[in-house]
Write a structure and sequence with these properties.
The protein is an all-alpha fold. The chain has 5 helices and no strands. Helix 2 runs antiparallel to helix 3, helix 3 runs antiparallel to helix 4 and helix 4 packs antiparallel against helix 5.
Length: about 130
């Protein structure tokens, strides 16, 4: 079910996005993958759940690798990311949708905060 037009649109959207917009897209992606994992667990599709939790973990790894610790707030972000990452590992081992819901709550909070930062700084267009 490939749609070449949509794929091209998505690729162009990513290639032309500002760093702030890319960060927002990553938050949205992590939330989406966690939601897919929750639904997969409910359908007892363990492989799909695992694969999507791993995708969310890779996004968290990306966030963590790009933190700039010359800013004091970076340590606070690191603490949240490290916690969510650990919880994703726990959720993946136990296939516990409640842990995933908790992770999504944190990711939504981070995303919403990021949207506010973008709005305040008039960076990009919050989706």
């Amino acid at each position: 079910m490939n749609n070449p037009g949509y794929d091209t649109y998505q690729r162009n959207k990513i290639m032309t996005a500002s760093p702030a917009e890319l960060t927002l897209m990553l938050y949205e992606g992590a939330i989406k993958f966690i939601n897919i994992a929750i639904m997969a667990i409910e359908k007892n599709d363990i492989i799909k759940a695992h694969n999507n939790i791993m995708k969310a973990q890779r996004i968290i790894e990306e966030f963590r690798s790009t933190l700039d610790f010359k800013y004091p707030v970076a340590q606070e972000f690191e603490n949240v990311y490290a916690y969510v990452y650990r919880r994703l590992i726990e959720a993946n081992m136990s296939k516990d949708p409640e842990i995933l819901e908790e992770c999504n709550t944190h990711m939504r909070t981070m995303r919403d905060t990021w949207k506010e930062v973008m709005k305040i700084n008039k960076v990009g267009s919050p989706l």
